Structure formats: C-alpha cells, structure tokens
Amino acid sequence: MYCDVLNNVLKRKIFRDIKNNILSGIVSKLGSFILTILIVRILTVEEFGIYIYALSIALVLLSFIDLGIGTAIITFVSRHLDKDIITSRSYFRYFFKISMYVTLITGVILFLFSREMSAFFFRNSESYYFIFSIFLLILTMQVSNIMEALIISLRKFEFLPKIRAVGVVLRIVLLSGLGLVLREMGALIGSILAYALIFLIVINSNEIKRFIFGPIKRIDKRGLKKYLFLLNMSTVSYSIFAWVDSIMIGFLSEFYNVAYYRIAFSLVSAIISVVSISAVFQPRIVGYTMNELKAKLKKIILLAFSISLPAFLLVNLFSLNIIDIVYGVQYRKSLEVIFPLSLLILLNSFDYFNAIFALRKRPIYITYIAIVSSISNFTLNLILIPPFGILGAAWATVVSRIVNIGIGYSLFIKVFKNEG
After folding, report:
1. pTM, to two decimals
2. Which residues lie below 8 Å from residue 321, measured CB to CB, with a gap of 6+?
3. Does the chain have fewer CB atoms within 10 Å around its N or its C terminus?
4. Which long-range contacts (CB under 8 A, 24 or more apart) does 207-211 make?
5. What gap in Å lies between CA 50 and CA 240, rounded to an integer?
6. Is the confidence at residue 321, as pLDDT, over 70?
7. pLDDT tens digits along 249-288
8. Could you tell me if 188 and 51 are in contact, meaning their C-beta atoms sit under 8 angstroms apart?
9. 207: Cβ contacts below 8 Å, ≥ 6 apart
C-alpha cells in the first residue's frame, strides 16, 4: 500500500516537472519568435546574417571551453544533494571555478589576436570589435547556463518558466532597442546585457544564494579534470550540429545565406525545445539502476516520439504561413530547408545516449561519438555547401545527427550489455 502511494506521488512529480519543463520551453521559444520578428524587421537580411554569424562563432567557441560543466553539475550536485548538501555545494563551486579560469584565459587569447581573427572570420581586420563582443557573449552565456544547470540539479523546475520569462523580456527590450540604434552590433550588445542580468537575478534569489554561499569541504577530485575534458566532447558535438553549419555558410558564401538558413533552423529548434523532455529525466537517470534504465528507456523514447511526431507534421504543413507571417516574404528562401531540418524534431526523440554516458561517468564513449559525428558533419558541410548552398548544410546536419544517434545506440548496447 505504501509503495503504491509512493509510486503515485513520484509519477505526479515527474509529470509536474515535465509540465514545467515544457512550459519553460514554450515561454523561451515564444519569446524568441517575438524577438526574431522584431530583429528581422529592424535589421536587413545582411545585418541579421552578420549577427547570427557572430553568435554562431561565440557558441562554437563556448562549446570548446565549456568542458561539459552543465552536465557535470547536474551529475554531481544531483547525486549528493539528498545525502550531503555540503558535498553537493562543494562540487558546484569547484566546477564554477574551473569554468571561470578557462573562460578568462580564452578572453585573453581573443584580445591578443583580435585583429587577426577579425580578418579571418569577418574579412576585415578593422572589425575587431566583433571579437570583443564574442568574448563577452561567451562569458555571460556561460555563467547563465551554469545557473540553469544548477536549477535543474536542484530539481527546481518550477523556477525555469519564471527565469526564462524574465530572460525573454530582457532580450526583447535590449536586443530590439539597441539593434534599432546600433544595428547588428547593438543586437550583440543587447544579448550580452540580457545574459548578464539573468545571471545576476538567479544568483541573488534566496534559495540559490543559500545553496551557493554555504560552507564547503574538500572533495575527491581524482579523475575529474579528465572526466570534464572527455565530457566536453559531447558539448562540442552538439554545438557543431547546431552552429558550425552557420559559420561555414558565412565563410564559404555570403552572410545573407546565414540569415536564410538560421530562420529555418530557429523554427525547428523552437519546436524541439518545446517538445523535448530530456532535461526532466536527466537527474533521474543518475538514480536508476541499469536494469531500470533499460526498461524505462524504451518508454521514455516512445513518450518523446509521441510528442514530437505531431510537431513534425504541423511544422511541414504550415511552414509557408509561418515564414510569411513571422519573418516576412523576404525570407521565403528558408523554405527549401524546412523539410530536412524538421527531421531533427523526430531524431531528437532518440537522442539520450550521450546524456546516459555522461551521467553514468563514461565520457570516453561520448568522445568517440563526438569525434566521428563531428568529422562527418564538417566534411559533409565542406562537400555539400559549395554546390548546394543552405540545402547541402541542412542535409549534412541531418545525416550527422543520425550518425551520432546510431553510434550512441550501438555503444550503449555494447557497454551496458552485462550491467544490471
């Protein structure tokens, strides 16, 4: 009787967390849609392309210095939270300190070579101010992402919709306002200010402040740096899937093609973030035995697919209407990549294996997956973008994601075959 009651309580909590996670995704992406509507009507297609190109560079660089800190926080904070909050806090502070060291070292390098990097990426050494803005974006996005990882680790999913709603308002006001005056550079400055303010708001909330600034103790750091290095490959892999195509489009063609591609990709990404339920299950995967995980994984994937399929159908049926109404007829060229990119909505339902290897402290396998899939993505982009443009970039991303998931599934079966 007691077990039945407990199971019902846990089920209600899981579905409540799923609801809050979906709600936070809706809030975030609805805000992004509103922001995009404003930005594409304030900036020209070329200016919007440059803004997205700079943002893409920042996000790919961030992935290389991120070290998988978000996943590490979720893993170690969640694991020790119920047993020893001081140990949990100590791991968080350790990971935060490492993150800041690596980010600041990167900033020094970007500052020293700003003109050279500007000439390489932006074809003009006098545009070095873009490199400065890229570093500030990296810094503010990193601390903001760490705060969100902490909220997930503490299982405070009810905070996510509120935090993302505040973030949406800040981004809409700052990006559109500054973009109107300073064009693409204003949009970048607005992003920096928005992420910085989100960090300050979260870190000053009472619950977060109590957790972060309490007492700490020595922790077992053996193998943690190697773990972070290997785990970082997962972050790099996902960032390459999401952003390296935009960089290569801008590098190999014109900046306005970046704008067309990102309009379609942002539409698909918005749908994925709304229907994805992976963040809800990540903290729970840590506590499952392998037999429990094997039994539950099929149900989790089936649940995710059942949510994703209607979204896939709807985005293909109404893509023309969405593009015209939301972004404007000048972005109709984006329609040619809607179908291939929308396949990512369905593929996202199967994309749990990197998270499982990370949360089960097997980051070496994430490295294998990331290396193969990243090479395939880069190579396919290099081959397909010159003759096929943004359509080639779209199919390169889809094929690479299939490679990523296929290798992940094969390794999952092999590695955990005899583990119960």
Report:
1. 0.77
2. none
3. N
4. 207/154, 207/156, 208/147, 208/150, 208/151, 211/85, 211/89, 211/92, 211/150, 211/154
5. 18
6. yes
7. 999 888 999 999 999 988 898 788 778 877 677 767 767 7
8. yes
9. 154, 156
User: Of 248, 232, 164, which is closest to residue 370 (Cα–Cα)?
Assistant: 232
Residue 2 backbone dihedrals phi, psi, to 5 degrees: -60, -45
For the chain, the 3-state helix, strand and coil shares in percent, each to the nearest 5, are 90, 0, 10
Separation between Cα atoms, residue 45 and residue 6, nearest integer Å: 55
Residue 113 confidence class, pLDDT cut points 50, 70, 90: very high
* Residue that the structure tokens 């204003």 belong to: 186
The count of residues in the chain is: 420
CA gyration radius, the chain: 21
215: exposed, middle or buried (Cβ count in 10 Å: 0-12, 13-18, 19+): exposed
Alpha helices by DSSP H, listed for 253-328, are 255-275, 278-287, 290-317, 319-322
Using the structure block, give the residue that is written with the tokens 């990331």.
Answer: 370
For tokens 């619950």, what's the residue?
207
Which conformational region is residue 194 in: left (phi greater than 0), alpha (psi within -120 to 50 degrees), or beta?
A: alpha
